[in-house]
Amino acid sequence: MAKKNDTGVGLELDQQGVNRIRDIVFGPQMREYEQRFQQIKNDLERMQQEMERLTDKLIDQDAEQLKKMQALQQDMRKNDDSLRNELRESAQKLTDEKVDRMTLAEMFIELGNNIKNGGSLQDLIGLLAQDNEK
Question: pLDDT tens across 15-65, in order?
């Protein structure tokens, strides 16, 4: 070992010697470790980039699905409104076209009386035509 002088030069030489010995003994292992750490670091960066890409893709797909769902909801509302209107129209049509119970009862009474009295089909049609005019 070198002697230590006032400037500390001897200590530097000793340190360099220790570093050289360390490099000789542990150098290949240290270089291998450094290569492995660098490879792990590169892999980690690549995985982070891939995760960011997949996250962006997922966000885009989520937005697209939301748009599709909103469009389907609008279509469902339109179809629901259309069906409701059609049902209302059918109900109104049935209300307008149905025969009143009292009118139907009177028609059956007249039909019964006509059959009882031996009336013809022509007479029955004439009676129904008169009732419709009322």
Answer: 888 878 877 877 778 788 889 999 999 999 999 999 999 999 999 999 999
Q: How far apart are the first and last CA of the chain?
A: 136
CA angle at residue 20 from 14 to 26, to 5 degrees?
130
Which of 125, 95, 91, 89 has the alpha carbon at shortest distance from 107?
125
Parse the chain into domains and list their residue ranges.
9-98, 99-134
Cα 63 to Cα 49, 66, 77, 90: the distances in Å are 21, 5, 21, 40
* 112 within 8 A of 125, measured Cβ to Cβ: no
Q: What is the DSSP letter of 4?
A: P
